[in-house]
Amino acid sequence: MTRNSMGERATTTQLLNDEDWMEKKLEELEKFKEVQLRALDDLVSVNSLFTIAIFLGLSFASPTQQSLDNRPQCAPDVKMEKRLVVYEVVSFACFLLSSLVAKSLKVFISFDRNKNDLDISNTHQYQVIKPSRGFMILLSVLASTVGVVFLTLSMVDVVQIKIGKMSCGIHETQAAVISLSTIVTLALFIYLPSTVITISRCMYKSSRTGHR
Q1: Measuring CA to CA, how many Å separate 40 from each of 90, 103, 143, 182?
Q2: Residue 169 and residue 161: Cα distance in Å, rounded?
Q3: Which DSSP symbol is given to 63?
Q4: Nearest to 108 by CA among 142, 137, 128, 138
Q5: What are phi and psi of 206, to 5 degrees?
Q6: What pLDDT is recorded for position 186?
Q7: 78-87, pLDDT tens digit by residue?
Q8: pLDDT per residue over 125-156, tens digit each?
Q9: How many Å separate Cα 162 from the centre of its chain?
Q10: Cβ(117)–Cβ(127) under 8 Å?
Q11: Does the keyword Ion transport apply (predicted)?
Q12: Nearest-5° angle of CA 96, CA 98, CA 100?
């Protein structure tokens, strides 16, 4: 009887410890879910701002547009204006893809039960992000990044249409294009690797709890 009582107490203690562990991890997962939702909201908001810039750029794709430089050889040609439209459309498609993926992922996270993220068979580990969810976040980020690249290319054409072609050696055009390219490249160099590394670590690295 004594051994049975001790066994029952040990079992009860183990169950209580498991319940405490579950509650703790569910709280952590809930907090992490809120961080994910805020990050997705921010991504959609940024995509919306970029979309506004796209429609502003499309207003310059007109045959009546004249550059500020009076030289005929520096005026925008039809090919440049067509290229501007192509860049703007591709950029819009990328931002739309990014926003739709982020929105669908936000709905999925909101209705997903946190208990499903816990590995009950291995209670000292749990995955922060499932691989499928991490892939969707990564797809949204990459689509937004590609959209930024094409938006930058379209802005280069906008500058040339408004100020004059770079081939004419116009200082203002060169300064604007170089500044734009440098700043965007620096921003993507900081944003993309850090985001990819963070998502990858969350996808494949399990967090461990201390000894109970």
Answers
A1: 22, 7, 13, 27
A2: 14
A3: T
A4: 137
A5: -95, 140
A6: 94
A7: 888 889 889 9
A8: 444 456 677 788 888 889 999 999 999 999 99
A9: 31
A10: yes
A11: no
A12: 65
Alpha helices (H) along the chain: 2-58, 78-111, 131-162, 171-204
Structure tokens belonging to residue 52: 């506004």
Residue 93 pLDDT greater than 80, yes or no:
yes
In this prediction, residue 120 carries a pLDDT of 43
**What pLDDT was estimated at residue 68?**
65
- Enumerate residues 6+ apart whose C-beta is below 8 A from 98: 43, 47, 139, 140, 141, 143, 144, 147
Using an 8 Å Cβ cutoff, are 99 and 48 in contact?
yes
The Cα 51–Cα 73 span in angstroms is 32
Q: Which two tokens stand for residue 21?
A: 């562990």
The interaxial angle of helices 2-58 and 78-111, nearest 10 deg, is: 160
